Amino acid sequence: MNEEILGTIQSMQVIEKIETGYVLQLDDINAVLNADEAMEKLEIGDNVDVFLYNNKQKKYNATMIIPKITQDDYGWAEVKEVIPNLGVFVDIGTTKEILVSKDDLPLYEKVWPIEGDKLFVRLGKDRRKRLLAIPATEGIVEVEREWSPEDYMNKQVKGHVYFTSREGSAILTEDHYRGFIHYTERKEEPRLGQAVEGRTIDVKEDGTINVSLKPLKQDRMSVDAELILNHIKEQGGAIPFSDKSDPEDIRGTFEMSKAAFKRAMGRLMKQGIVEQREGQTFLKEK
Questions:
Q1: What's the CA gap between 199 and 107, in Å, rounded?
Q2: Closest Cα partner for 52 from 11, 100, 101?
Q3: What angle do CA 239, 244, 245 make, to 5 degrees?
Q4: Residue 59: CA atoms inside 13 Å, Cβ hemisphere, count?
Q5: Which one of 36, 123, 225, 282 is CB 3.0 to 4.6 Å from 264, fit for a cystine?
Q6: pLDDT tens digits for the chain (286 residues)?
């Protein structure tokens, strides 16, 4: 098998009709085009453009459904299946789903993409010449991205994560801007390929943006107050926390700073929902 031709688009000639479809030929290479992969009825001698891939028997298959992602063109591919210890299969725009190897995914499977997430990939091959989908590196994103306008502060942005780590996550927005989410600007580490929505908190000189997934302070106070209130209810109406509690204890339980805790707690007390006594917080009886 000529592995170099796998994953490419070729013009091939119909040389035979078979029960399941057609046999195509290019030089000394034959490929089967199944009837459900043909976009029209074909006759012997017709020339057709097809995408070539291999089947489980390592023979050539062809499809007239041309993929949107090739070895030269990157694009967003939706995750269709996740197989632990192997990788994920993605839809590249044709009937053949392609593997993204575990070697190109995060070390920790908890941040692997799930079905429905999208990865920015191109086609490639591994050392054994098997067809794979290869996620874009930071260098590729630098070439593919657009420059953000200078007046892009406080804009709502949507995008997909193409790199993630404990330090932060990088995204490509719908406008193809490169954004970075510092770990302090998110509640938890998002998955690779996850769709996220946030706001621009900085526009950098190199045309990239910094993004926060946290709500604005006034909105965050409402979210934090609800989180605290739910925790109090879950604990039977009282918690061993107050404005004087240790900041690390607060962060460990509520995943918020002491300042945010005090703002949210102040809101609950002002509304007459809770009260503090002897270092604890209680639901007020109605």
A1: 28
A2: 11
A3: 50
A4: 7
A5: 225
A6: 566 788 899 999 999 999 999 999 998 899 999 999 998 999 999 999 999 998 776 788 999 999 989 998 999 999 999 999 999 999 999 988 999 999 999 998 999 999 999 999 999 988 877 889 999 999 999 999 999 998 999 899 999 999 998 899 999 999 999 999 999 898 889 999 999 999 999 999 999 999 999 876 555 557 788 889 899 999 999 999 998 899 899 988 988 888 888 888 888 888 889 999 989 999 987 6
